[in-house]
Amino acid sequence: MSYTINHLSELEAEAIFVMREVAAQFEKPAILFSGGKDSILLTHLAKKAFFPAKIPFPLVHIDTGHNFTETIEFRDYLVKTLDAKLIVGSVQEAIDKGLAIEEKGANASRNVAQIPALLKAIEDHQFDALMGGARRDEEKARAKERFFSHRDEFGQWDPKNQRPELWNIFNGKKHFGEHFRVFPISNWTELDVWQYIAKENIELPKTYYSHVRPCVERNGTILAVTEHVQPREGEEVKDMRIRFRTMGDATITGAYKSDADTIEKIIQEVAAARETERGNRADDKRSETAMEDRKKEGYF
Amino acid sequence: MSKQEEIFNAESYEKMELLRFTTAGSVDDGKSTLIGRLLYDSKSIFEDQMEAVKTSSERRGDENINLALVTDGLKSEREQGITIDVAYRYFSTPKRKFIIADTPGHIQYTRNMVTGASTANLAIILVDARHGVVEQTKRHSLIASLLGIPHVVICINKMDLVDWSEESFNQIKNDYKQFASKLNVKDVNFIPISALLGDNVVNESENMNWYKGSTLMYHLENVHIANDHNHIDSRFPVQTVIRPHSDEYHDYRGYAGRVAGGIFKKGDDITVLPSGFTSKIKEVETAGTPLEEAYSPMSITMTLEDNIDVSRGDMIVRTGNMPEISQDIDAMVCWMDEKNPIRINGKYTLIHTSRNCRCIIKEVVYKMDVNNLHKLEDDKEIRLNDIGRIRLRTTQPIFFDAYNRNRITGSFILVDEASNVTVGACMIRS
Ligand SMILES: Nc1nc2c(ncn2[C@@H]2O[C@H](COP(=O)(O)OP(=O)(O)O)[C@@H](O)[C@H]2O)c(=O)[nH]1
Ligand SMILES: [Mg+2]
């Protein structure tokens, strides 16, 4: 008998360990829920970690107001199934109150405007730990992120001054007003996520699977036509068979032409993919260090 | 079928294991290039990442595509052209998924190296074939040995610059063996490579027919890691107690945690520390599914036959196989505080498994010259990046095993009580 477990089980065990540490070490922890597959995965892991008890974290959704309808529908459905508490922080409200500034121009997004809305939600609810579904393989700046990432009272991340993280010992000690961002699936890759979703039969919004919908092509990116994305002059609306690899704002999340309408086909497709999943997000392309700059300010 | 596609047929990924390794070497020995090469040759770099690397290379005026840029992430690092933190990288082959902790080699980053080493199954130590075993090689080996990394691979790099010479390789190998006899590393391998050109990294070298061993990738895929965890001494630190308070599970009390050693199964006689209460295991489960056996590194929930008082910080062990229980600890420490040296008689918070307590530093026994293993008994001031042996006393007993027996129950950290920063990484001596 050889006492080993496979890589998915080990990643699961690690994520569950981290979530249990969060529940034990913090007073008001929450899951930052974006509506994407990674945050759906977090809720699944939380369910397993605390079974048969309910998940001991509310879900916090920072709503940019630029969502896909499917994302919100699925969010509400999931909250109901989990019998969890949902807290919504509104970017629109932050903009209306002058806490955040709406970007202007052709490629405007509400990414940066999310930061003040998030920090306000943290302050209003006194959260001391927020778990997110970020993975180290997503982007260069994230490769150095800790599991327990310390934020000062302004919510800022200092890449030069991160606490060393040794063995499986997580130091969540902090001063009043500071908080932590915690990333239980740091060590997962996109492929691990999909393999695990298949293994555990995790339900996802339909938008992750291939479907036909009206789209436009803009600067080489395929965007679904929604309330928030309307064709501009010279753009032609076409019905395309597509799917999404991430679910961010409808205004910036690029779709991929795909026939993958089952999880097995998606796994095949991801395996053969030649681009990272963030590769098609207009927000990361702005400059080589776009993500690092946003993280320092308090972006997830 | 391409390598990447093979990984995904369900059968093979069900059997894929996880191997964590760290890379060490002096600045410019080729660490970043080697990692870039492993990722590139195993087809783990995506097109958009490669595009970004190409653009950066051109902007910097590099002659070839600079594979080192794949790993050198943060802005300031790219500007200085060095690696200053621990960066984690991922790739997989049909056999294994790999997590690389890429750490900087310079002495001022010893703490980053220790961090990367703490969770590694394997260490790759790079040696420049032109320079042979140098001070840094010794320091990195000492750290690997101190942190109990079970497997070490010495990659003798830049073989292209010494005419692929077998003699150079053997010379370095012998020098290393002589020095390493003083260390506690069980499994050491030597591989001659060229990270820049790819020889013996993923593909066999055509320039070094005299070398009959395996390529680095083959070694990474096949090195035996099943015994890297302790499967003898049953240790279960309780992280949290699960009490659903629902009608269906009215009296349910589950003890949640990650197995730190040994094997637990239904019916085992257990003892709870520190109370000393005994009971039997009723069920070992994950999310309600019973498990036949649980062992490290599984995260599980355990229920007991008797309703006894158990809480976070307690340790459940198999009756008859006790850990050591003491308030007086003898340990090696790597100091990580940028501001202050370790304070004799200073008080710190100690975090060991799921247990927290305070402690007082009683004595620095010696500081170690990490370049040659000499014990410095006159200079006992332990500062940032120093390694030494200390004695301390805790406010409450902790339950531990020697680090060389169990890396989880044998390690702890020290936290500064004022700043809350992690200042010491400690390994308990036997
Ligand atoms: N000739 C030769 N040069 C190499 C080899 N490996 C790395 N280099 C070069 O050595 C320099 C330092 O490499 P880098 O990977 O940045 O080293 P690091 O500081 O250890 O990360 C770069 O100019 C590399 O191109 C090799 O096998 N042969
Ligand atoms: Mg480097």
Report a brief summary of the structure:
The complex is a heterodimer of chains A (300) and B (430). With 300 residues, chain A is of the alpha/beta class. Chain A has helices at 7-25, 37-50, 69-82, 91-96, 114-125, 190-200, 263-272, 290-297; strands at residues 29-32, 59-63, 86-90, 129-131, 148-151, 179-182, 211-218, 221-224, 238-243, 256-257.
Overview of the molecule:
The complex is a heterodimer of chains A (about 300) and B (about 425). Chain A has a six-stranded mixed beta sheet with strand order 3-2-1-4-6-5. A four-stranded antiparallel beta sheet of chain A has the order 8-7-9-10, with no helix packed on it. Chain A folds into two domains: about 5-190 and about 290-295, Rossmann fold, CATH 3.40.50; about 205-280, no CATH class. In chain A, helix 3 links the parallel strand 2 and strand 3 (about 85-90). Helix content of chain A is about 30%, strand content about 15%. Chain A is of the alpha/beta class. By secondary structure, chain B is of the alpha+beta class. Chain B has three domains: about 5-230, 3-Layer(aba) Sandwich (Rossmann fold), CATH 3.40.50; about 235-320, Elongation Factor Tu (Ef-tu), domain 3 (Beta Barrel), CATH 2.40.30; about 325-430, Elongation Factor Tu (Ef-tu), domain 3, CATH 2.40.30. Chain B is about 20% helix and about 35% strand. In chain B, a hairpin with a 4-residue loop joins strand 19 (about 355-370) and strand 20. The N and C termini of chain B lie far apart (about 50 Å). Mean pLDDT of chain B is about 90; it is low at about 1-5 and about 75-80. The interface between A and B is large, with 68 and 85 residues. Magnesium ion (MG) binds next to helix 3 of chain B. Guanosine-5'-diphosphate binds near residues 33 and 161 of chain B.
